[in-house]
Design brief:
The complex is a heterodimer. Chain A has 31 helices and twelve strands. By secondary structure, chain A is an alpha/beta fold. In chain A, the strands form three sheets. A seven-stranded mixed β-sheet of chain A has the order 2-3-4-1-5-6-8, sandwiched between helices. In chain B, strand 2 and strand 3 form a beta hairpin. Classes of the chains: A alpha/beta, B mainly beta. Strand 12 of chain A pairs antiparallel with strand 4 of chain B.
Chain lengths: 704, 75
């Protein structure tokens, strides 16, 4: 059997058309996301088997209303389409439209047709046609649009096979005529001159190059210069763009008049009823904050059991390796470095998955747009946009995708402020730190019979995070001298029941990306940490001898002796020396050198805190210690006071420190990439660090 | 000038043919065309942003944008 021919297919459509559903149906689990997190989330691709001779490499492009981009996300679409001579350039474009907003969806379709690439149009949500009183003359529509048109229902998996064969057909026939040849009608002379500049590109491609100031890599310097000279008259460009859009809509209206009928009397008013509640001036907000409260309670309540289970599992695994395999350096590395390290990552999974699930529900149902609508005016007071609510909420899962989701914000200043304050929101990497400290300090009681006190403390920390973000935004809004024009328009999509399949894929993909991305850092750090904790200069080598000499005459059990030796060794190891060095600086905050070590490693990623303490304590403890990290922390004693090390003042001081400090290398890297400068991540690092230090100092000094 | 910002909730208007240059391209592309029927669906507190339905598209726009788009109210 010969290998099937591979076709590059680009999937394009307006937001809220069910593009993702179609992508999931076409590719199943054969998907991958390029380089996430850390570098880029731009490209989601998947393989789809079209027929026995053809398979497709489908690229899911960001949702957009037009090829003319107003945000960074949308410019990816333009870039992909303009570089049509590249190896991975789309050979067939699959445009997804939804049946209800067909007119608006056809604008994008008409632009894409003019690029002269074979195109297939899939009209989604066809199962709702009857309910919405819509009828379509499909044959006539195909003739008018000059492309294969299909009615599908991606969620119900209807029409997917037809889409596959239509892609193959479009690929083989390679027919690609422009739909509107729009530019001649506006100013024939002008566009004739434009066309003469290069024979290598279609007229519409040239028009996009000059209006969007975006050029394909393949264009010659000479042609590029000619195009730049051609577009000197900016007012003409703008006027012609307006005219172009009007003309396109005229054409679309003509087509739809012949082919598309809506019986308005059948339209349901469910949307209007729901909107009355969800966008209500008072109930809208009450409902929104109620939903937030529910989310945060669930994160704490639902995740505890699986988290304790994972925690215990890894403690057992460590013990098992220690007792069952021959002793030695390798055994130590696995049992004290790698296993606690991996445990430190996997313990997040329950909380992250729950958070991503809630965010997916809010987005899928169309509710998130209502929140944007409700919050815009308020957010603007603080220099942000209503759209900043989405990054701020997804920041509670992870700041990295949150920073990237700011791309939908059109105004640069609003976007920059959002990026700068997002790391204040309580991300899931803080959760294990919070969770363990709260469990140690706050009694497990219920208030009013159903609210867990620990859950309320967690909620307070979330509120602290949001409040600080908002306050910081306000200060930045008043002090930042950045000029930018902001523009705001949000579609309010129809309410939809969330699709289980889409949500499962979404949660799976994001959780996987997080675990792998964060896991690499944490695993590497745990190994480095273990090495630094089990090696040291001469004083480390002599530690055992010195301890034995010191206690030679005193009466002490063998267990205690081992304990003392281990402590002395840790203190004199490389990491111990590092912790000791910073101890004077952190002592006013209530921390000792062991916590200092955890602070140092946390600057790579916060979640390392628990893992670091786990590694330190397990290096320090006896070989047969089977306690979990929580039990071990609870029994840690402060030698100067004789009290518990993690008492209330120290715990609070640590909570505040972790709430404010910018301890995440991956976020700093992504901020650098998104702002194209080291200035902003450095401001975050030092600004947030200073706030963290001063606040923790105040908290500890007042409480102790 | 009568603009979208002067509509009451539930009230209808038609986008004026002269306001073409005032409509941002993005809005135009989303169906906010001269001659199109526009309905004010809902207002956020302080009357900003506005939730409108134009040409079948449900959109939220800010007051500053709405104030630039002239409309004709049916008499």
């Amino acid at each position: 059997m010969s290998t099937p021919t591979s076709i590059n297919v680009a999937l394009i459509g307006n937001p809220n058309t069910g593009k993702t559903s179609l992508f999931n149906q076409l590719t199943g689990l054969n998907q991958k996301v390029g380089n996430y997190p850390g570098v880029t989330v731009d490209k989601k691709t998947g393989i789809s088997n079209l027929s026995k001779d053809h398979k497709a490499v489908v690229t899911d492009l960001p949702g957009t209303y037009s090829i003319n981009p107003t945000s960074l996300d949308e410019s990816i679409v333009l870039k992909t389409l303009l570089n049509s001579d590249k190896e991975d350039a789309p050979e067939v474009i699959l445009v997804v439209a939804d049946i209800e907003n067909l007119k608006r969806n056809l604008l994008l379709f008409s632009q894409i047709k003019d690029l002269e690439i074979p195109t297939v149009l899939a009209i989604n949500m066809a199962d709702e046609m009857k309910r919405k009183g819509i009828s379509i003359d499909l044959t006539e529509l195909q003739k008018e649009l000059g492309s294969e048109v299909l009615l599908i229902s991606a969620r119900k998996n209807e029409g997917i096979e037809e889409v596959k064969s239509a892609i193959v057909k479009a690929y083989i026939s390679a027919k690609a005529a422009p739909l509107c040849s729009v530019n001649h009608k506006i100013d024939t002379d002008y566009f004739e001159r434009l066309k003469e500049i290069s024979p290598n590109y279609s007229l519409y491609e040239l028009w996009l190059m000059i209006t969007q100031n975006s050029f394909p890599d393949s264009i010659s310097e000479e042609e590029k210069q000619q195009l730049i000279d051609f577009k000197h008259d900016a007012s003409k460009l703008k006027k012609y763009q307006h005219k172009e859009t009007i003309y396109r809509y005229q054409k679309i209206n003509e087509v739809l008049k012949k082919t598309y009928v809506v019986d308005r009397s059948k339209a349901s008013d469910l949307r209007a009823k729901l909107d009355k509640v969800f966008t209500h001036k008072i109930f809208g907000y009450v409902l929104f904050f109620g939903i937030l409260l529910l989310i945060f309670q669930s994160i704490f309540d639902w995740a505890t059991v699986p988290m304790d289970f994972i925690d215990g599992l890894f403690a057992d695994a460590s013990t098992f390796v220690k007792s069952q395999f021959p002793e030695g350096v390798l055994n130590d590395l696995i049992a004290e470095g790698i296993i606690p390290g991996i445990g430190g990552v996997l313990i997040f999974i329950p909380q992250i998955a729950i958070l991503f699930l809630f965010i997916a529900i809010l987005e899928e149902t169309g509710y998130m747009s209502r929140v944007v609508f409700l919050m815009d005016k308020i957010m603007r007071r603080f220099g942000m946009s209503g759209k900043s609510v989405i990054p701020l909420i997804s920041g509670t899962a992870c700041a990295i995708p949150a920073v990237m989701s700011t791309r939908t914000i059109a105004g640069w200043k609003e976007r920059l402020i959002t990026i700068l304050v997002v790391p204040f929101t309580t991300c899931s990497a803080r959760l294990p730190v919070y969770a363990i400290l709260i469990a140690l300090m706050i009694p497990d009681r219920r208030v009013l019979g159903f609210l867990s006190l620990q859950g309320l403390t967690l909620l307070a920390l979330y509120i602290l995070g949001f409040a600080t973000a908002i306050l910081a935004a306000y200060i930045l809004h008043k002090t930042l001298k950045v000029k930018s024009k902001s523009f705001f328009v949000v579609e309010m999509p129809d309410y939809k029941a969330p699709s289980l399949k889409n949500m499962a894929f979404d949660v799976l993909e994001k959780t996987k990306a997080f675990v792998i991305g964060a896991g690499k850092i944490i695993l590497a750090l745990s190994i480095v940490l273990w090495f630094l904790a089990s090696n040291g200069p001469q004083s480390y080598v002599d530690a055992e001898k010195n301890v034995r000499a010191q206690i030679e005459n005193s009466d002490i059990s063998a267990d205690e002796l081992q304990q003392k030796i281990a402590s002395a060794k840790l203190e004199n190891s490389y990491i111990g020396i590092m912790g000791k060095t910073i101890e004077p600086v952190i002592k006013p905050l209530g921390y000792d050198w062991k916590i200092g070590i955890a602070l140092i490693t946390s600057f790579a990623a916060r979640e390392v805190f628990v893992g670091t303490l786990a590694t330190i304590y397990s290096v320090e403890s006896d070989d047969d210690d089977t306690s979990t990290i929580k039990e071990r922390m609870a029994s840690e004693i402060n030698p100067t006071t004789g009290e518990k090390r993690f008492n209330f003042p120290v715990g609070m001081s640590l909570l505040v420190f972790y709430a404010f400090a910018m301890q995440c290398m991956a976020t700093l890297a992504i901020v650098k990439r998104e702002t194209k400068s080291w200035k902003w991540p450095l401001i975050q690092l030092f600004g947030m660090g200073l706030i963290a230090y001063v606040s923790s100092l105040i908290v500890f000094q007042i409480l102790s | 000038m009568t603009t979208i910002a002067s509509l009451q909730i539930g009230e209808l208007g038609y986008i004026s043919e002269d306001s073409l240059d005032q409509i941002p391209l993005k809005l135009l592309e989303m169906g906010c065309l001269p001659g199109a029927e526009v309905e004010l669906v809902q207002l956020a507190p302080l009357n900003d942003p506005l939730y409108i339905c134009v040409n079948g598209s449900h959109l939220a726009i800010r007051k500053e944008t709405a104030e630039k788009i002239a409309i004709i109210k049916p008499s």
